[in-house]
Every structure is written in structure tokens, then in C-alpha cells.
Amino acid sequence: xxxxxxxxxxxxxxxxxxxxxxxLKRGTILRLIDRDGxxxxxxxxxxxxxxxxxxxxxxxxxxxxxxxxxxxxxxxSDMGRIFCSIVExxxxxxxxxxxxxxxxxxxxxxxxxxYQEYRNDxxxxxxxxxxxxxxxxxxxxxxxxxxVNWFSRVRTEEDGSLVFDGSQAKAGAHVxxxxxxxxxxxxxxxxxxxNPATEYPRxxxxxxxxxxxxxxxDDPCLNSRPENGRGFANNHLYHLCG
Length: 242
Fold this sequence. Notes:
- By secondary structure, the protein is of the alpha+beta class.
- 20% of the residues lie in helices and 29% in strands.
- The chain has helices at 57-62, 103-110, 115-118, 126-135, 220-223, 226-241; strands at 10-14, 19-24, 28-34, 41-47, 50-54, 74-76, 82-89, 148-150, 153-156, 162-165, 174-179, 183-188, 205-211.
- The longest helix has 16 residues, at 226-241.
- The termini are far apart.
- Residues 15-184 form the DUF1989 domain.
- This is Urea carboxylase.
């Protein structure tokens, strides 16, 4: 397990199959920790001042010439700004291609267990989890976008097919996100849609918040791609005019 830093602002834990949301201020670091090994954290990002601005997975991958997310990468909005940067990552690979589990998919794989009957042991899915959190801010189905799946690795085979790869699952692995603008974060801990487990995975996570340092000129995320320099410039202009 990652060592708790002395500048800890907040911490919490979530079992598998849960969901939550919060607004993180610019300069905050969100640390996600795979508590049990094999966790999946589905996550979406929005501008709390303009909910029409939200995470854009295609642009995030395209402008950084990557299929996976890891340290040095930035997560972009659909307006060319950077929601957050991955400043530390001991997992090494995070999916942002395969989307969410659905009610039908979870029921087909692991059986249907309703909240009314099973309470906290029900089999929640990622899509409905996002809808519950989105509704708290006046959003709905039309506002959901392609999401990140932290701690989940999906590789491509020679024939182009996608395969869920659980080889990197490690208890205590963590990823640190430094937020470059105020951001509304929705997340869930429901299974990845391609998880082949025979039982509904209830792998938990820990969440920690820290105060980040200002972005320096030699910052790895700023300099990993020329496009990221332009993204940070867009953020700078946004904050000047905000």
C-alpha cells in the first residue's frame, strides 16, 4: 500500500460496486489506490461551471499517440483543455476505450441481484452508477461520455481483438491525478465490462486528496507531448478570463 503523505487533506474507502462524485479544485491531487488488487474505477470528468464541457477520450488518446493511460499523460476536455494530469502511476496501464458495464451485461454474467432484495450485496453496474451520480447535477443519459477505467488493462491481439488482461492487478498500486482546473468527478467501482471473473468482483479502493505543487517548466506531463503544451496554454487562457 502506498505510504500516506504528511500533507493528506482527506481519505476514504469504497468497496466494489459503489459510486460517488465530488468537485475537485484546481491544484488538488487525487490518489486512487487499488486496495485489494484487481479493482476497476470508472470515471468521468466535467467542468462544474459549464457541464457541456466534459472528458473527451478520443482526443486524449489521439493527441498523445497512445492507447493506454499512464504517468505523463493528460486527460482532455472536448474544448481542448486539460482536466487533470497523471503525475504518478504504479499500475502502469489504464483503459479508456472499453466503456462501462450495463445492467443487462452484469445480469448475464453474474446474475441479477436487486438492491431491494440484497441491499449492499446487490450487483450494481457502471452505467447506472454514472446515471445516479449525474442526476445529482441535473444531467442524464445524454451527458454520459466514454469513460476511464482506472487499474484495468486491455490489450490488443494480432488480429485486432481486445482482451482483458488482469496480469497487472496488484494490491496497493496507485495512480495520482493532479487537477489542472476545477473539475466535477463522477466515479464508480463496478467491474470492467470485459472482466471474465466467475463471481461478481467486489474489489475495493482507497481515495486520498492532497495539495499539489504548481506546474513547473520541466513538468513531465507538460513536456511529454507538444500537444500537452498547447493544452496547458488553453488552461492558462481559461483561468485568465474566468
